[in-house]
Design goal:
With 401 residues, the chain is mainly α. It has 2 domains: 104 residues, no CATH class; 273 residues, Alpha/alpha barrel (Mitochondrial carrier fold), CATH 1.50.40. 65% of the residues lie in helices and 0% in strands. Helix 2 runs antiparallel to helix 3 and helix 6 packs across helix 9. The longest helix is centred in the first third of the chain and has 31 residues.
Length: 401
């Protein structure tokens, strides 16, 4: 039994320390962005090293924190306490680590499982729907919209003809790199906010939360993720707007933005992004309402596998702000630019193109919603299911032999 615990602890520590890869990658990337032209990383100034080290530290801890929690819980709880119900199953094997079968009392306000499940689901969903996102961005950009008239299929065919299949995936590197952090943060924040609302008001089962509570938790998770979403989508949009054979690398886009107006340039369009991402409230409400309807009144929607749920309501509710965000982030904040702020973009777009402009690119977005949300929620539910817990965050009963 002791050797099993030692092996498990070493494995958790090794997995956590894989985070040194993103740590050093972030350090080097920031140094290169801040470097004076013609200089090398070895000749970086003290303030550049301090900034790069700080950013690398944040990135490293964000990536490794879930596994660090697992390692600490393994090391802090003796193996014999399995007989007292701290672990729901197993005898020190990796399949029964707290990451997967944590006792409800430990897990109540630590949605680690949701973070991991959201990470994997988000990355899978991103890859599934990215070509449609590229079409959407180009339809929303005034200078490019005229090139892709007709159906979404024709737009995809034109992009492939001019830029090959790789053209449909321009800009995927930045959201893919942030997908783990973004979707993990959204799903874990959603679970945490839902728990706080339900358990904080005397409830016992987050799976039976009201749709109003679901909406508030969803909106809060979206707004909270804006710090990640804004720079990620800004870089993505700048790359997707490139119609040449090759788009600028993500690092080059970041460097150009920072050298132009400083670090704040990475957060251009933050207000429009936050307003749009309030739509996560409608997004989760649509999902929960549909899931409960499919599950039937007897189960209350808590234990039904919901692979067939398709969600488009969240995008319909906030799509006009997505158009505004794309135009703001796809342009520079010069005084003569009509898209320099969220409000100026709304006013200028409406006066020159009418109300219909705020739903430009809706068709590819709705088509994209089908594979993206099927894959995202499908993977999310599968991981939560493997973790041995139901949708309400409670540990399922495990068989004891």
């Amino acid at each position: 039994m002791g050797s099993h615990l030692l092996d498990t602890t070493l494995l958790a520590t090794a997995l956590r320390d894989c985070g040194y890869g993103p740590f050093f990658a972030a350090y080097e990337a920031v140094l290169r962005v801040l470097a004076v032209p013609g200089s090398t990383a070895a000749r970086a100034g003290k303030w550049q090293v301090l900034v790069a080290g700080g950013v690398a530290g944040v990135v490293g801890w964000v990536v490794t924190f879930p596994m660090d929690v697992v390692k600490t819980l393994i090391q802090a709880v003796p193996v014999y306490t399995v007989t007292f119900g701290v672990f729901e199953a197993g005898h020190g094997n990796f399949a029964s680590l707290p990451l997967f079968t944590m006792h409800p009392a430990i897990h109540e306000f630590l949605p680690t499982v949701e973070f991991v499940a959201g990470t994997l689901g988000g990355m899978a969903g991103l890859a599934a729907g990215f070509p449609f996102d590229t079409v959407k961005v180009r339809l929303q950009k005034p200078e490019l919209a005229g090139r892709y008239r007709g159906s979404t299929a024709r737009a995809i065919a034109k992009i492939v003809q001019e830029e090959r299949v790789a053209g449909l995936f321009k800009g995927i590197s930045s959201p893919l790199a942030a997908a783990g952090l973004l979707n993990g943060a959204v799903f874990s924040a959603y679970a945490l906010l839902l728990d706080i609302q339900v358990l904080g008001t005397g409830g016992t089962d987050p799976a039976r939360a009201s749709l109003a509570q679901v909406a508030l938790a969803g909106a809060g998770s979206g707004i909270g993720a804006t710090l990640i979403t804004t720079p990620t989508e800004l870089v993505k949009i700048r790359q997707q707007q490139c119609t040449g054979p090759r788009a600028a690398a993500a690092g080059a886009v970041v460097a150009d933005l920072v050298r132009g107006v400083g670090v704040r340039g990475l957060f251009r369009g933050a207000l429009a992004t936050a307003l749009r991402d309030c739509g996560y409230g409608a997004y989760f409400v649509a999902y929960e309402a549909t899931a409960r309807a499919l599950a039937g009144p007897e189960s209350g929607g808590a234990h039904k596998t919901k692979w067939q749920v398709l969600v488009a309501v969240g995008w319909l509710a906030t799509f006009p702000l997505d158009v505004v965000k794309t135009r703001v982030q796809g342009s520079s904040p010069t005084p003569a630019n009509p898209y320099r702020t969220t409000w100026s973009t709304i006013v200028y777009s409406y006066r020159n193109e009418g109300l219909r402009v705020f739903y430009r690119g809706l068709a590819p977005t709705l088509i994209r919603a089908v594979p993206v949300n099927m894959v995202t929620f499908g993977v999310f539910e599968a991981v939560v299911g493997v973790a041995g817990r139901d949708r309400g965050g409670r540990v399922r009963e495990q068989g004891r032999g």
